[in-house]
Prior knowledge:
Layout (H helix, E strand, L loop, with lengths): L11 H13 L5 E4 L4 H15 L8 E6 L6 H16 L3 E5 L4 E2 L12 E2 L31 H8 L3 E3 L8 H12 L9 E2 L7 H10 L6 H8 L15 H10 L6 H8 L5 H5 L10 H6 L8 H9 L2 H4 L3 H16 L6 H13 L5 H23 L1
Parallel strand pairs: 1-2, 1-6, 2-3, 6-7
Antiparallel strand pairs: 4-5
Helix pairs in contact: 2-6, 12-15, 15-16
Amino acid sequence: xxxxxxxxxxxxxxxxxxxxxxxxxxxxxxxxxxxxxxxxxxxxxxxxxxxxxxxxxxxxxxxxxxxxxxxxxxxxxxxxxxxxxxxxxxxxxxxxxxxxxxxxxxxxxxxxxxxxxxxxxxxxxxxxxxxxxxxxxxxxxxxxxxxxxxxxxxxxxxxxxxxxxxxxxxxxxxxxxxxxxxxxxxxxxxxxxxxxxxxxxxxxxxxxxxxxxxxxxxxxxxxxxxxxxxxxxxxxxxxxxxxxxxxxxxxxxxxxxxxxxxxxxxxxxxxxxxxxxxxxxxxxxxxxxxxxxxxxxxxxxxxxxxxxxxxxxxxxxxxxxxxxxxxxxxxxxxxxxxxxxxxxxxxxxxxxxxxxxxxxxxxxxxxxxxxxxxxxxx
Length: 378
């Protein structure tokens, strides 16, 4: 689907405030997902400003933080700070420390696709202890089975607002564009995205102008050379944050030891991050592989996908591999070796939610259509 971008008559900050006020006007409970990250802080500052000016009712607001155990110390401090702010204005703040599933990019090597936050059987190696005021159980939780998204959708009896932005990924852009085309302002789970149209520059400019204090991890990542568009912070073992572990040992010298105790495979980030194991395409990797003969990725894919039962050891991995095999066969007439390389590396580095698969589909077919149009004109 072609996506057309339009310029509005108001700026993104005013547009976000209008969306938030519209949500509260329903009179229903409003659940706000909070993480302490940059996007979450923008949304929280907008909500707090509207509370302070009397434009929305704070007693409708329930702020929810899913504590994923393996988080930076400064992120925990920032969430505690905002918890106090919200509670002082009359909002409710729920801090969950629950046994929920989380994807672990390091566990690809042990054929385990999930990380259980606050695993009761691994208390002795928890990265940190849960706060005394945290909620550590819930009657609607399917412990060790639910993801936090599954759990939250089950307990939220109102409208949820989150800091999701389309600038973060092409999948989010497509999903929200499809939703808008259908005339909807929220998802089937009653989710609204007030800052969905904010760019990375909008986020950082707003935080600067509003003098919102950010977790120091962002400054450390910037100092370590992480580009502005890749300053993402989440649970340690997700692919977005795993790459930063290599560079953060200087700033948090005792943290890596705790992480490796909790997840022994984490040390591989330091050894093999710039390799096809993690699907990386950095300058360092290209330099290391410069003298090597170019790999025939089409052949490598054919070999890997010819025996899915043997090459993929879990039921879900085999399901994902079959999806990749169908895609591989569908693009075989239009793909080149770079495409096959991308498909191969996304497959072996893990793609449990098939986000990379959807992105590859759009990228390859979009390029094919563009080239076909050029050929027709000639």
